[in-house]
Structures are given as C-alpha cells and as structure tokens.
Structure of Putative sulfoacetate transporter SauU:
Amino acid sequence: MRPWIIWATGLLAYIVAVLDRTTLGVSGLAAADRFNASPSLLATFVVLQVVVYAGAQVPAGLLLDRFGSKALIVAGAALMASGQLVLAFTESLPAAIAARAVVGLGDAVTFISVLRLVPHWFTPRQVPLVTQLTGICGQLGQVLSAVPFLAVLSAAGWSVAYASVAALGVLSIVLIMLVVKDAPEGHVVTAEAMSVRQTLISVRTVWLRPGTRLGFFTHMGTQFSVTVFALMWGVPYLTVAQGLSAAAAGTLLTVSVVAAISSGVLVGIFTGRHPQRRSRLVLAIIASNALVWTVVLALPGPAPAWLLVVLVVVISVGGPGSMVGFDFARTFNPTATLGTAQGMVNMGGFLASLLLMQGMGLILEARGGISFDSFRVAWTLQYAVWTLAVVGILITRSKARKLLQQQNDQLLLEGAGSLDGQGSR
C-alpha cells in the first residue's frame, strides 16, 4: 500500500503542474483584458511554455540524477506556485511573461521526477502500467483548470483564481515533504557532483545509448500531433476549416482526453506483458496517425462529423504511445543516469511540437490566414516529422537489440565460466 500512497502524492504534484500549465489557456480572454494584449501576443505564452519546457529537460534530468525525485518535485512546485502568485497580482505584461517562464521551468522538472519514483517503488511488471497511469491521471489537471478554476475566475476574479492555484501548489509541497521518499531505503544520490566537462561527457554518453535515442524518436513520432492539436491549432482548425461550432470543438477535445485515458490503460497492460513488442506498437500508432490524417486531408471539403471523431480518437492514442519512450529509457539505461535519459526522451515530442506550431503558423500566414486550404497545406508538415521519427526508431531499435543481445551473450559466458571454475575445484 505504501508505494501507491507515495506515488499518489507525487501524482498530485504532477496534476497541479498540469493545472498550472493550462490555466492561461482557459483564461485567455481575461488575460487579454488584464494585460491589454493582442491574441497574437498572448500566443507567445504558449510558445514560451513549450520552449522553456523542452529546453529545460536535459538540465532537469541532470539535477534529478544528482538530487533525487523529492527535492526536484518540491523545487518544481515552489517555482510554479511563485510564478502563479506573480500572475495573480501583476498587471504588467513583461512580468506576466517572465512569471509564465518560471511556471514552465517548474513544470519541466515535475513529470520526469514523478516518473523516477515508479521503478524504485514498483515491480518491473507493474512499472509500464503505473507509468501510463501517471501520464493519463495527470491530465486531471486540465479538467481542474477547465471547471473549478474557470468557475472561480468567473465568480471571484483573476487575482483570487490564480492565488488559489498557487495555494494548491503550496499544499502539494507540504504533502511531498511529509510523505514522499525517493526509494524504500531513503534518499538516494545516484550521481556525484561533476565539472562542466564531466557533465557534457555524461550527457553525450547517455545520448549515445541506442535505447535513449529509441525513446526520443518514439516520443517524437507519437506525441506531437495531438499536442499541437490540443495546445494551438486544433480549435481554429475545427471551427474555421471544418465549420464546427465552438461547443462542438470543445466536445471533441473532451473526447480526446477520454480516448487518451482509455487507451493509456491498454497500452500500459500491453507493454508490461509484451515488452519485446513495444516498438511494433509504437510504429502502429504512428502509422494510424498518418493514415487518418491522410484521409481527412485528402477530402476536397470539410470532413463528416464521424470522421473528425475518428481523427481525434486516433491521434489521442499518441499521448499514451509517447509514454513507451520512457519505458525504453528505463530498460536501456542504468539508474544513475535515468533522469538524464528521461529528460532527453521528453524533449522529442515537445521539440517536434514547437517546430510544427511555428511552421504551421508561417504557412498559414503565407497563404493569407486561417482557411480550409491553408490548414490543409499546413498540416502536411506532419509527414516530415513522422518520416524522421520512423527512420530514427528503425535504426536505433536495431542497434538497441544488438546491444541487448551482446549483453545477454556476455552474461551467458560469465555464467559458463563460473560453472567451469566450480567444476575444476
């Protein structure tokens, strides 16, 4: 029971992180009024969040290897609470942007730190499922921002709503301090302090492990499509290009969350029972994403409602699919550098998402703004990312399998040598 209590406490911190991540998205109109900012300027908040999150992953992983999960979760919660508190009371746009960057930095360290708890507290058979549960249950934070946070914002105003979120972050800090331990034996420092040169060598070593790169390309190929759809271009695409109402578009985003949660459980069970088939599952998810987008984009006009539902459901499976990348990192990396490896994996999908957001924006602007035809061209950028990810998966999978086979052969030789030695005595 204790592992589940510790995991649930860490999960609460991640739920609060997702809440912090999504509050600005549901309060966009209020933010425009408060900071007297145009929609395009407010969009920089989203881009800034992704830039900070992706850019901080490797440093966050190194810190995680050095100081452990508990310290990083507390630090992340403190950063996010501080940023939200500044947002609650400032009316300066530069201060708000800086506060949002601080929130993104705290968010960046939280997820991989909670994931790092899982292999310490659960059996290897349980780890894939608990990893999936961490990712999908964390999305409850998005529900908190869309319902209770928005209700408080409407009833009590900006400052009370954001201060309440900051208070929730403080509560999570207290619970983490009281409940969470890095491992059953207590605090584990898995890496000693290193010089800059040693740090760079360590990062290079982790990246050169084929299992790390396999996780990176897995995360890249599965996660970016649904992330870009949910964070930036999905609602404009559904309402302007596909002709849906705002309410219908919101319903489809709700369907996306339900699909991700449902498929996440199935992906976790499958990868736990069939670890040797994980890459096949990932390739199938990528292929299904590419196929459903091809069908939708090939249509000369707006897609029927049922096909849009299929599109949203299929791309939403990419979220749980990206979690398999962390499982690859765990399988092919020693515990001492697991945080760094998980940070590298987590960069894959967010770097791809950032590039696609920017690239689509440039195409939409070049083609005269948001329209059915311009979106049709812009979404085709996805095929370049899928191609790169699939090639990367196939190459690194082959290398990872060869390395694993060499390690198994070495263990067999060492075992045979040990038996020969006993027989000679």
Q: What stands out?
A: The radius of gyration is 22 Å. The chain has two domains: 1-182, 206-408.
